[in-house]
Write a structure and sequence with these properties.
Elements: H1 16-58, E1 60-69, E2 72-74, H2 77-82, E3 87-91, E4 96-101, E5 104-110, E6 114-117, E7 122-125, E8 127-129, E9 132-137, E10 140-148
Antiparallel strand pairs: 1-2, 1-3, 1-10, 3-4, 4-5, 5-6, 6-7, 8-9, 9-10
Length: 149
């Protein structure tokens, strides 16, 4: 009795040339995408760190220290204090703040350049220098000096 054997055929081997060619095109693209993501992450991280440093530098309670109306310095700050009419701003580390101007309290947020008043949705520019915050508009200027951190 004769036993027939099945003929087996080998699948043709894939060309390593094609695989190497594809990988030589894809790998630099993947490397570029990964590098871009790393750079974006570094930039975002650095922005958050800088933002947190500048906010933490400003954190504290500020009290009205000088007032100019129409370019003229008013000596009324101490008089207002003696009457119980104070003006202060509290900046917190989370970017929120509260203003209390002569008894009128308002919630706000802040960044390096502006206070954003929550109730009126207005932005008020300010400058920060040596533990003082100054608001200026049309010859009027209010300067608040830090009293606590």
């Amino acid at each position: 009795m004769a036993i027939k054997t099945a003929k087996t055929t080998k699948a043709p081997a894939k060309s390593t040339k094609t695989t190497k060619k594809n990988s030589s095109i894809i790998m630099p693209i993947i490397g570029g995408v990964i590098a871009s993501l790393v750079i974006v992450g570094i930039v975002i991280g650095a922005t958050v760190i800088v933002d947190n440093i500048s906010k933490s530098k400003r954190v504290g309670m500020y009290k009205l220290s000088s007032l100019y109306l129409n370019g003229e310095q008013e000596n009324s700050v101490s008089l207002l204090d003696s009457l119980g009419l104070s003006a202060n701003i509290e900046l917190r580390s989370d970017g929120t703040c509260t203003t209390n101007i002569f008894g009128e309290k308002r919630d706000c947020t802040y960044d390096d350049k502006e206070l954003h008043m929550s109730d009126t949705n207005t932005n008020t520019p300010y400058t920060y220098e040596r533990d003082s915050i100054t608001f200026e508009n049309n010859g009027n200027r209010m300067t608040f000096t830090r009293v606590t951190e």
